[in-house]
Amino acid sequence: MSEGNRDRRAALPSVDRVLQAPSTVALIERYGRGLVLDAVRDALAASRAAHDSATADDIAAAIAEPLRRRMRPSQRRVFNLTGTVLHTNLGRAPLPEEAIAAATEAMRSPTNLEYDIDEGGRGERDDHIAGWLKRLTGAEAALAVNNNAGALLLALNALAAGREAIVSRGELIEIGGAFRLPDIMQRAGTRLREIGTTNRTHLRDFADAIGPDTALILKVHTSNYEIQGFTAAVSATQLAPLARKHDLPLIEDLGSGTLVDLTRWGLPHEPTVAESLQAGADLVTFSGDKLLGGPQAGLVVGRADLIAKLAKNPLKRALRLDKVRLAMLEAVLRLYADPDRLAARLPALRLLARPRDDIAALAERLRPAVADALHGVASIAVAEVKSQIGSGALPVSLLPSAGLALSPTERSGRAVENLAACLRSLSIPVIGRIESGRLILDLRCLEDETDFVVQLAALRKS
Fold first, then answer.
1. Burial class of residue 226 in the structure, from the number of CB atoms within 10 Å of its CB (0-12 exposed, 13-18 middle, 19+ buried)
2. pLDDT tens sequence across 289-331
3. Rounded-to-integer distance, Cα 42 and Cα 36, Å
4. Dihedral (C-alpha) 293, 298, 304, 306: value to the nearest 10 degrees?
5. Does residue 229 register a pLDDT over 90?
6. For residue 213, what are the β-bridge partners?
7. CA pair distance 405, 437, nearest whole angstrom
8. Domains of the chain by range and CATH?
């Protein structure tokens, strides 16, 4: 080792000296001694390896940013400007303030989760939401589990384990993450009896498939795709008499599910849970965090005797909701008791029903600020775009919207990807979509205009 390198190594402070420096003490107060100690040792080792000299304050300054990044929550707030309102990867439905307040209250102290205050004994956790679901759907009974795949898994296992469930081939859906209906049925211990063809299934196909091993008929609402052209499908209204004739339960999986007629707010019609029950479905399964606008949950409503069988199944305990999500779900369901104010109070519906002209006006207001922040990097134009309701909820139904189209000045192959990465690096990451060589920021879901604009200053410095 040269004399100069030996001198520089000797100039490095000891670990104890760095830990006693006022700037390091402040870091220990913020992050704890263990993390800071490890960071100091790593920084000193790196300086020795590079033959660098450093003071205690230099080391403290060097570890401050890595510590901040390490302690930053991995799940962070983002601006969803993708154009998909109920975005699976970005948390689906934003929750109303009533649900947030209910969750906070439930977390703060013990609750009567499974305690009947009137009787002074054990209660049922589903009672907190069952009454509202019965009122809003007309069902005899209801229960909740952790998501809709869990709801369907529970129903199939409780009612058709070791037996057959009849499903149209055109309804054998695959949802996000390569999660397929046949796989759910297999895990439930149910044998799939698929009938018909991809594009056409008739009532006689169901009738011909019924045999001694048939446990139920399953109808699946294909909310995440659409088959067009020479098609035929059998409705729940048609299937119900056949199911009753053979004393078979008819289950309809609505997937996204909605409790209200969305056409009231100018949105595409989606079958409501009440409509499915009125059509003759014995059980209906649907999600809580998509069109319903609540927390992640799987809901089952329908006949009381069938719900009772599901409630007694061991899987129910494995899939049940905790007190926090039940509190949030109850708060969301209460909003549906006042449909006249629902769009104003339920964020998911408010964003879906947001007028295009209001979004276009927002785009005009924001364009100068974004153009200034990206001066010389990209040109900015107001653009007419189409929003998507959800990746798994009416994905083929598009809503007129407006946004900003960012065209990189640089014409390299990765220029638009680099621009998207730059926006994602902001303190509140901005997530858009790349389309035809441009970064599109659909503004339908942007309500916090102030926070969006304030952080643009960081782009001018980068």
1. exposed
2. 999 999 999 999 999 999 999 999 999 999 999 999 999 999 9
3. 10
4. 150
5. no
6. none
7. 10
8. 3-71 (no CATH), 79-88+352-461 (3.90.1150.180), 97-345 (3.40.640.10)
- Distance between CA atoms of residues 256 and 129, nearest Å: 18
Nearest to 192 by CA among 221, 175, 215, 176: 215
Q: Which of 383, 449, 445, 460 is nearest to 90 (CA)?
A: 445
Q: Would you say residue 3 has pLDDT above 50?
A: no
Residue 226's pLDDT is 72
pTM here is: 0.90
